[in-house]
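Database export, one record per block. Field names are fixed; values are copied verbatim from the stored entry.
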Amino acid sequence: MGSVCLTLIAVLLLKNSVLACKAPDVVESEKDWWQTAQFYQIYPRSFMDSNGDGIGDINGITSKLDYLKEIGVTAAWLSPIFKSPMVDFGYDISSFYEIQPEYGTIDDLKNLIAKAKNLGLKIILDFVPNHASTENEWFKKSVKREKGFEDFFVWHDGYENPNGGKRLPPSNWIQAFRGSAWEWNDERKQFYLHQFAVQQADLNYRNPLVVEEMKRVLRYWLDMGVAGFRIDAVPVLFEALPDSSGRYPDEPLSGTTNDKDDHDYLTHIYTENQPETLDMVYQWRTVMDDYQRIHGGDTRVLLIETYAPAWFTMPMYGNSTTKGAHLPFNFNLITMLHKGLKATDLEKSIGAWLDKMPAGRTANWVTGNHDQRRTASRYGIELADTMNMLVMMLPGASITYQGEELGMIDGEISWADSVDPAACNSNPQIYEKFTRDPSRTPFQWSNSKNAGFSTAAKTWLPLAAAYETTNVEDERKSPKSHLNIYKALVNLRKQSKLLKNGTYRFKALSDSIFVLERSLNGEKLVLLVNVGNSASTINIRDFDVTLPETMKTSIMNVYSTKSEGITIQAGRIELSPYESLVLVKT
């Protein structure tokens, strides 16, 4: 895409603004299911509680599959459901082959997969390869240096303390949840690496036994009928090797904070984005492809968590000779945007992915997940529909975090109610900077007790305050609710060959006005967005002279006063504050 974009930009500059890239003409073709899918992330602990213990579970998800079908989900990705002491709520796995009892059983999962299949839905599991719980049998055996497990994790002697006392850790590396990434194990008399909580020991991927065991895990769950995996924390999978003397390199100071326990205190050049990681992604893709070749059926997908710079993320797609992830997650709409964003910010964040994406690959768009503040809280509730419109109308796959279709906002979580280790490892004065609890509050099904999530006296996290009006039951009844706007967008996306195969073109017309155009065989769809708090009048034929003089309204956000199906003049379109609307040819 890069050379195409550069050529177009050179010849199509508009006054005082840069025209964003236009995709080359594409031939209308049949795409694989994942290329235009609506992926929906479920945080099982907070989705639906079936047994009244205040915690969501697998049977709760099964009971709500009809809702997923209703909103047009293609595949539901479940955050970890494996056996775990729940230090990091499932991301610390004590058995990769068992289900966490409070979530259900293997049979419950099989039932979920079977019922989903009957509804035409796919189930994707969260795979957490970087680390295992210190309660995992692998770790316990490694501590004892049992044969085959001696080097299953990353161990090091550390260094003698010149002042006496406890030995010093192997390097200055800092974990994601504050403090040293090294922990002394008194039984083994060595330090082990943990890039997350102290109870999450890093597996050693330089050990072929680890590599093969984790491939075995993937095949085990594929045999269960899952459609693929979302792979967690991929950029930290490998770390730099020790030097010839056995010493790990210290990481340089970042200069962004004086808090020596904060992960951001260092620049992570030795613990993130190592070249060996890419080869591991390619090996996992081979597992997916081999499984399909042997067993048949639809493509088993590989989705990769990629909080990494473009130079490392884009090769995760693969190269000219090797296939990589089907979709390395695109977090540009998270990492490059902020509250009070401008239309130019949208243009840059979208272009930064499409311009760098390798030819022939599929884009994807993510605005939220269980680790981020909810979309409506991060950008403001006034842009909740707008972000869904972008995700559904840009080329490629969409990823929705549970509740984004409702415009759910974050809960207010006190220090006393905090359970996230990222927050609990800090203190009452600074925990709000680190906590992920606010975006994990229970899903809002109705305005009844506990928002219809649970019959328990107390839920595992308090509810967000807005559940009385922001919930599935009430929004279903309102034609112009966030939920119904979301459903209309998905329906348009499913029915429109233009959105599946069409070219794209986008541009910030001003600080507040953004336009996205999709075209195919003379048909056009236009998304107009006003991110500003004042009205604006625009002529979209200045953006594309081939647009007709009149167009019809199709889908509008909650801030629009326009009706569906009315004809408007393309040369003079009035947009209200925060208004977004989809236009079609008359």
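Remark 1: Residues 33-127+424-470 form a domain with the TIM Barrel fold (CATH 3.20.20.80).
Remark 2: The longest strand covers residues 513-520.
End of record.
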